[in-house]
Description:
Strand order of the largest sheet: 1-2
Number of helices: 5
Strand content: 5-15%
Structural class: mainly alpha
Distance between the termini: 33 Å
Order of helices and strands: HHHEEHH
Oligomer: single chain
Radius of gyration: 17 Å
Largest sheet: 2 strands, antiparallel
Amino acid sequence: MRLHEAVVLVERQHALIEELRSSAPRHLSAARLAQRTGTSVRTVARDIARLCAAGVPIDVRHGPGGGYRIDARTALPPITLTPGEAAALISSLVAVGPYVSTAAMSSLDKLLSALTNVPEPGQHVPESP
């Protein structure tokens, strides 16, 4: 896959996740998601399958009244990343161009800040796993 194709895929999958989050807890049909993201039903199905395979918690309901739904938490619990894990995320964001999404830019800023901020004397720093 070429880089520009990967960027399109990342943007499209991000758009799907955001559409599902904004409609939660309701299920959205593939046709509705395709309309909202400017793609086809087949593309939505393939992208949702990729996201599910990666572990994204998307509930898939087949049949009439079915569709897709995601757990739309408003906040996530704190997580601890090793500097290597943070660097992997940073390089991934930079590779696909974080400048296309406000959420991507915000997460890049947070990761960079966490890597470059030096804790104050006496400030507790969680141990890396």
